[in-house]
């Protein structure tokens, strides 16, 4: 009996010990795993707070990782804590007088949650408000994500509201970061593709008023500005050169109503500038919504018929396969040619291959296409990257309308030889295609994002340079460089020639429909001609021709980018 009693005591002891251990484990779990979260909740219950950021997200930076493409900036703003302001009517009248606003316009901000007012302040207004020393009313610097003229808006993308509870739950499950229905999320561009990385767990800067249960300001604690060193957001470092991007956008604002410009680094395949028109401001989406069609479309990655720029692929294939020499001759009868009409209505007559390339003669390239056959043209077009829409770090969904196999369809071959019919390409693809010739026949995959950083600048993920592959021989590439140089020195692309540096490239004019003289005008080329540094693709929608509409834009941009020639 005594032994049985002892066993019961031992069992009871161990049972209590297990329960106590489980309790200790649970308390440790709460303290170590959720301690910060619960502590934050407790603090939130005892404070009134205002975020000093309009949107708590990581930055999108230029290639140096220093310039914010968003145009992020700070402004002095008035913070209002309605719960702790005494004599609200008098304060309201005083504030309205300082801001020169109707008191009725401001009255709504004196009820509800704390917030900052939407009024930019002069230094005099800042000084007057601070001199008032009104409890619950102060001036602080607020961080704004977008400026009045952000760069590369279509690449950056824009933000929008969470649509419903289902999307809220989906977002919360993606990366473990908390979301509220009032949060703004990425809707397009890098803002969308890197939503999980850019999203902050909490604002970097907050103003907090410590209050008691009756919402009275606690003496001695008052209102403090809290700055967090780690908020969970990440910065995206792009390959874009802020200075070149700005030049491109300034020229486009003057010269291109609809279209795109892409600038590529010849050595790396990095995209140094990507600009699309019509433009929009991510800070004011509502104003852009009723604007022009395709306002939010990134025209740099959209598909268009490339027109005569595609003749580069046909020429490369014919030279590489030994089907043509520069001195070989063709006959062009202009708009009476039985094979395909030429843009030069009177016809070029007897013309050599190198002259046909420089003058962009359609019948000559139609004849070459028949010699090559659709299989060879498809093979070379694919090798030049005209079926790959991949851009490193910029995962734009594939547009399945691009299908080179359609070149093999009946009656498509000749039209395809001049970049019409089923042939479709993006301005980025055109730049990468020309860069093959610059790099002695080697294709380099374009890159737009270099790395993702922690907010302290520590690298988190690096995107290496694109893979390269041999497309054509060095000899063929050398001959194509010479031919592209003839286009700008003697041919239809003279408007692209750059004094002191020279240039080389190809024009293109793709019809946009029947019954109109307007075309999608292209120029894609490189400069300086001897030691190329930049490849540029210009697309002008509804232009006159590649030579008159797109080539001058190429020249103007590069004249501003390159140092003045001696």
Count of helical stretches: 19
Please outline the major beta sheet.
5 strands, antiparallel
Please report the total strand number as a whole number.
Answer: 21
- The radius of gyration is 32 Å
End-to-end separation = 112 Å
How large a portion of the residues is in β-strands, by DSSP E?
15-25%
Runs in which pLDDT lies below 50 for 5 or more consecutive residues are: 34-44
- Quick check: average pLDDT? 90
Helix content: 25-40%
Query: What structural class do you assign from the helix and strand content?
Result: alpha+beta
Widest sheet, order of strands: 12-11-21-20-19
- General shape: elongated
Task: Give the structure's gist in a few sentences.
This protein is an alpha+beta fold and 566 residues long. It has helices spanning 2-33, 35-45, 88-99, 103-106, 123-132, 153-156, 165-175, 189-193, 195-198, 242-255, 285-288, 311-320, 353-359, 362-372, 374-383, 413-417, 427-438, 474-489, 546-561, and strands spanning 47-51, 60-61, 73-80, 115-116, 137-144, 159-161, 184-186, 205-210, 223-227, 234-238, 259-265, 271-277, 329-332, 349-352, 442-444, 449-454, 459-462, 468-470, 504-511, 519-527, 534-543.
């Amino acid at each position: 009996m005594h032994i049985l009693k002892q066993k019961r005591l031992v069992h009871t002891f161990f049972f209590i010990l297990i329960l106590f251990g489980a309790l200790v484990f649970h308390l440790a779990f709460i303290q170590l795993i959720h301690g910060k979260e619960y502590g934050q909740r407790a603090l939130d219950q005892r404070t009134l707070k205002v975020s000093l950021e309009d949107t708590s997200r990581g930055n999108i930076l230029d290639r140096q990782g220093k310039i914010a493409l968003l145009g992020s900036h700070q402004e002095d703003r008035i913070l209002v804590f309605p719960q702790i302001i005494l004599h609200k009517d008098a304060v309201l009248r005083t504030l309205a007088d300082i801001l020169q606003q109707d008191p009725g316009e401001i009255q709504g901000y004196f009820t509800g949650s704390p917030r900052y007012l939407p009024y930019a302040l002069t230094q005099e207004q800042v000084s007057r408000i601070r001199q008032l020393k009104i409890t619950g009313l102060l001036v602080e610097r607020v961080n704004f994500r977008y400026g009045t003229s952000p760069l590369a808006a279509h690449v950056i993308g824009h933000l929008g509201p969470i649509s419903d509870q289902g999307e809220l739950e989906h977002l919360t499950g993606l990366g473990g970061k908390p979301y509220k229905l009032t949060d703004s999320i990425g809707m397009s561009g890098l803002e969308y593709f890197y939503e999980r990385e850019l999203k902050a767990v909490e604002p970097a800067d907050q103003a907090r008023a410590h209050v008691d249960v009756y919402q009275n300001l606690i003496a001695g604690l008052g209102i403090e500005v809290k700055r967090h060193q780690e908020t969970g957001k990440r910065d995206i470092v792009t390959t874009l050169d802020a200075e070149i991007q700005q030049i491109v956008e300034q020229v486009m604002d003057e010269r291109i109503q609809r279209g795109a410009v892409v600038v590529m680094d010849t050595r790396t395949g990095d995209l140094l500038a990507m600009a699309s028109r019509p433009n929009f401001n991510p800070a004011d989406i509502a104003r852009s919504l009723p604007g022009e069609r395709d306002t939010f479309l990134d025209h740099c990655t959209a598909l268009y018929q490339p027109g005569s720029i595609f003749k580069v692929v046909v020429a490369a294939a014919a030279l590489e396969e030994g089907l043509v020499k520069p001195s070989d001759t063709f006959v062009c009868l202009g708009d009476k040619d039985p094979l395909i009409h030429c843009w030069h209505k009177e016809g070029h007559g007897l013309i050599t291959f190198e002259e046909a390339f420089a003058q962009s003669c359609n019948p000559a390239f139609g004849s070459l296409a028949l010699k090559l056959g659709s299989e060879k043209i498809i093979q070379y077009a694919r090798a030049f990257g005209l079926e790959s829409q991949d851009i490193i770090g910029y995962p734009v969904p594939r547009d399945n309308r691009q299908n080179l196999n359609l070149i093999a369809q009946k009656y498509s071959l000749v039209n395809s030889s001049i970049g019409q019919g089923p042939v479709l390409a993006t301005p980025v693809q055109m730049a990468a295609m020309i860069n093959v010739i610059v790099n002695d026949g080697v294709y380099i995959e374009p890159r737009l994002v270099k790395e993702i950083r922690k907010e302290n600048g520590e690298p988190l993920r690096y995107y290496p340079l694109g893979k390269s592959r041999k497309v054509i021989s060095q000899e063929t590439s050398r001959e194509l460089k010479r031919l592209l140089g003839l286009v700008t020195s003697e041919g239809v692309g003279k408007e692209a020639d750059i004094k002191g540096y020279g240039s080389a490239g190809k024009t293109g004019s793709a019809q946009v429909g029947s019954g109109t003289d307007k075309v999608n005008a292209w120029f894609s080329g490189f400069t300086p001609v001897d030691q190329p540094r930049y490849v540029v693709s210009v697309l002008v929608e509804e232009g006159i021709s590649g030579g008159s509409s797109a080539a001058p834009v190429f020249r103007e941009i590069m004249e501003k980018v390159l140092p003045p020639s001696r």
